[in-house]
Protein 1
Amino acid sequence: MNENEIISILKENIIEGFIEESIEYIKLAIDKGIEAKTILNEAIIKGAGEVGKKYENKEYFLADMILAGDAINECMNLIKPILKANNDEPIGTIMIGTPEGDIHDIGKTLIISLLQGQGFNVIDLGVDIPPSKFVEEAKKVNPDIIGMSGLITVTISKMRETVVELKNAGITSKIILGGGVLSEETCKSIGADAWTKDGWEGVRIIKNMLGIKGAS
């Protein structure tokens, strides 16, 4: 089996959300000496792009996105050490968490997988995170973007409180919000830079915020 065949099969497994098969073929690609950047660009990122198109075209539902995201996560876990060893730096650092009072993490987990598949370094703070923790970690890692994800209305007040504390602490990272309880008006009232209800839209917005080509 040649390089193109391995990459093609890996990409299809990612698109289909076949986790075990994705692990098998990324290990095969690594064993065959295929460059990590080729695996990332030609299989993981292109596969993630196809998943996004299927979701936008209503061919995929949330469950399909989660499976594909899990496949991407597993692949990224295997390839990240190689990329670091080769000095292939991530295209940006995103710090993300679910604010205090909300323990839901489906949306957060999904966008983390998508961002990692696009080559971002993502720092996951977890769920039920108080404003002080966002500030503390932001000072440590100086992320390009800070993301907050929430699925319940109580999250809105905590998002607002977190944004205020981040700005009072002198944190200059751009802030993006995600979740079904949000709107353009809510985003403005909270003081964030952007918002999204959709994972792939969030990826595009983040790329645009950082001036990264291929944000469409």
Protein 2
Amino acid sequence: MKNRTGDHAGEALRRIAEAYPEAQVELRFHNPLELLVATILSAQCTDKRVNQITKTLFLNYPDVAAYATANLEELEEAVRPSGFFRQKAKNIKACCADIVERHNGAVPSGMEELTSLAGVGRKTASVLLAVAFDTPAIAVDTHCRRVSQRLGLTIENNPEKVEHDLQELYSKELWADITRLFIWHGRYTCKSRTPLCQECVLPDMCPWYLDMIA
């Protein structure tokens, strides 16, 4: 499968945007810290479950200092339903300790600063940049990668390489839209095991689908 041209990429994004005017990041948050914590919890966990957890979590841990000084066992118990709760609690506590120590308690707004925090990878940082800070960034999660591959926008599997290919195809002002729209399309239509191709707005320009029905 070869990479497609910018025209192909632009038309794909246009159709997805028209199909999902309601598309948005489904994690509930009120500030960058809450989005950071929710995104860490979302690994291998549905946004719906994360939102159930954070409804209480955000009340009990209202700021960075609360997480940084939290009793680890209590924090583990609070995030247990998200799965991998010990590692997630450890990352949240260490990450917030870094923010207190190195950033005066404010969540940083740069890629380098964010990815230097304990437990924060490029995808999490990109979500923060695109959603909380309105900064051009593409968050490549499993949905975004799958949609990009099936549409022939990339042949890569590595998320950073997928991100690079998408950045080459789209102008910066569209990067945040890609994060929002590709994830939504992948979650609700272009599913991994049971894609709803008959409901998709892209069948005539999707190499994966065209190969499948050939």
Protein 3
Amino acid sequence: MPTGTPIPTTTDVPGPSTARRRWRRAGLIVAVAALVATAAFYGLGYQLFYRDHSDPLRHADAIVVLGGEHDGREDYGLQLAREGYASTVVISNPYLDDHSKSNTQLMQRVCSAGTDTIEVICFDPDPSTTRGEAMKVQQLAEERGWTSVIVVSWRYHLVRARYIFGQCFDGDVVMRAVPRTYPSSFAFWSHVYAYQYGGLVKAAVLGCDK
């Protein structure tokens, strides 16, 4: 045998116990990473979407009721107007494809709820998203000289809606959550967190066309 050539020994070849230790170490790393990611997902989700990020109410040029669900938000927006926080209520109506009697009656009622002192504007957002709603509000603000609005939506939507209005609307925004209760199930909030995270990423990518 040529000199200088190392002779393999049993210590140079990983044995079964060494391979098992490596697999255990890799499995532990994966488990810890998954645990950290899960903790971040739910911990940050709790802070951003579960907690109420409503602003203190103050007078604004208009009250904007975002679409999404008939959970009392339209009447809450009208109530704020009756309490004197704004004389104009802008109600998003992305429900034109919903021909159910309950939806039709509700939208007809709130869209015709204007008085001598309160103006109600209903509109179909294009696109039918928070971004489309914010773009429409910016258009109305430019036409009417608005510099501030109160925006009403779900509690868990406030952070994302604030971010999108910050992109699309040049004025001040007061965010208000619809006064309502929410399901307490783990599955419900897991879905909400995932959807809102995705919506924030989408908003960051799309930006806003003013």
